[in-house]
Design a protein that fits this description.
2 domains; alpha/beta; Spore Coat Polysaccharide Biosynthesis Protein SpsA, Chain A; globular
Length: about 325
C-alpha cells in the first residue's frame, strides 16, 4: 500500500510548446544523497517539468527530507510506500502517478547535468522521425564514481554507430551475443533511461517479483517487441557507486536466474539456458570469494562449451580484472 501527498500545481498553460516530462526518483535510505539528487532533477533546464519521488519505506530520515523539499517546490509530488517493495514497485508507483508525456528516471544517489532532459528528448524525437518507430528507449552517457575516487566512463548504448534494435539487445543481455556493428555501451540502467510514458505502460511497467535486474528485464521485453536502444553521447550523468543489502551479490544472482527462467523458451532456441545458468553461478562464486568453486564451474563450462566459454571468458575476464583492481584500490 502507499500513501501520498500531491504537491503538484499546474503552472504550465495547455498551449505550452514543451511537452511535460516527468522525472521519476526512487529512494531508499538515502538521507545523505536524496537532497542532491532532487536538486539535480529540479535544476533541469526543461521548462515543463514535474518530479515524482517515491520513498520505498526508508528507516532513516529520507522521507522527512523529501517532504521538506516538496513543501517548498510545487513541481514535486511525493509518495511514500508503507512497506519496502523494491525498486520495480517504486518505479511502477511513479508510472501510475506521472502526468508527463515522457518519463526519465533518476536515482537517489546520482546527479544529472541540467541539459540531460533536453538532450534525451531531442534524441528521441529525431530518432522517431527517422525510424518511424515509437518503441524507443534513450539512455544517457556519463560516469560512475567509486568511493576511492576511481571514475569509470559510461558511454550510453547506441551513442556510437548503429543502435541495437529488436532481438539484438535481448541476445546481448541474456547470453552476451554481440553484433560487432552495434554499440552496446553501458547497457540498459534505468537511472539513465528516458522514454515515452505510453511505452512504459504498454509494456506493463517493471516486474515487481525481481528485486534486482528489473531494468534488464524491461529492456529484454522491449527488445523482443522490436524496440530501439539509443544513447546521448554527451556525458550528462554522474552515478555514485554505493552499497546496500538490496545490492548484494546473492540478490543479483537470484534475480538473473529469474531472468533466465522468464526467457527459457527463447534461450532454448539458441541452446543458451544451461550455459548461462552455469556462467552466472561462476560469476557469483567469484564475487563472494569462493574462487575454488568458481574455478570448478569454469572447468565445467570449458568441457561442455569449449569455444563459447573461451571467447566469452577472454572478452570479459581481462576487462573485469582491471575494473576490480581500480575499484578496490586504496
Amino acid at each position: 500500500m502507499t500513501h501520498s501527498k500531491n504537491y503538484l500545481k499546474q503552472t504550465i498553460q495547455p498551449d505550452q510548446p514543451y511537452p511535460r516530462i516527468t522525472v521519476g526518483v526512487t529512494s531508499y535510505n538515502a538521507e545523505h544523497s536524496i537532497e542532491r539528487a532532487l536538486r539535480s532533477a529540479l535544476d533541469q533546464a526543461w521548462p515543463n517539468l514535474e518530479v515524482v519521488v517515491v520513498d520505498d519505506a526508508s528507516n532513516d530520515g529520507t522521507w522527512s527530507l523529501i517532504q521538506q523539499i516538496a513543501d517548498n517546490d510545487q513541481r514535486v509530488r511525493a509518495i511514500c510506500h508503507e512497506i519496502n517493495q523494491g525498486a520495480a514497485a517504486a518505479r511502477n508507483s511513479i508510472l501510475e502517478a506521472a502526468s508527463g508525456e515522457f518519463i526519465a528516471f533518476f536515482d537517489d544517489d546520482d546527479v544529472s547535468k541540467s541539459n540531460r532532459l533536453e538532450l534525451q528528448y531531442e534524441h528521441i524525437v529525431a530518432y522517431e522521425q527517422s525510424s518511424g518507430s515509437h518503441l524507443i528507449a534513450c539512455y544517457a552517457s556519463g560516469e560512475r564514481i567509486y568511493p576511492n575516487g576511481y571514475v569509470m566512463p559510461l558511454r550510453a548504448v547506441g551513442a556510437d554507430g548503429p543502435a541495437p534494435t529488436g532481438s539484438a539487445m535481448a541476445d546481448y543481455l541474456l547470453f552476451h551475443k554481440r553484433d560487432l556493428n552495434l554499440f552496446y555501451g553501458a547497457g540498459t540502467p534505468t537511472c539513465s533511461l528516458m522514454s515515452r510514458a505510453s511505452l512504459f505502460r504498454d509494456l506493463g511497467g517493471f516486474d515487481t517479483a525481481m528485486r534486482r535486474q528489473e531494468d534488464v528485464d524491461f529492456a529484454i521485453r522491449l527488445s523482443l517487441k522490436g524496440g530501439h536502444f539509443i544513447g546521448v553521447p554527451e556525458p550528462v550523468l554522474s552515478q555514485y557507486a554505493t552499497s546496500g543489502s538490496e545490492k548484494s551479490a546473492l540478490i543479483e544472482f537470484e534475480s538473473f536466474l529469474r531472468l533466465l527462467d522468464k526467457n527459457k523458451d527463447y534461450l532454448d532456441t539458441t541452446k543458451s539456458y544451461h550455459y548461462m545458468r552455469l556462467w552466472s553461478e561462476m560469476r557469483y562464486r567469484h564475487f563472494v570469494n569462493q574462487d575454488g568453486r568458481a574455478l570448478r564451474l569454469l572447468i565445467r563450462l570449458l568441457l561442455y562449451y569449449p569455444l563459447r566459454t573461451s571467447r566469452h571468458f577472454l572478452h570479459s575476464a581481462t576487462r573485469r580484472f582491471r575494473h576490480e583492481q581500480r575499484m578496490n584500490a586504496l
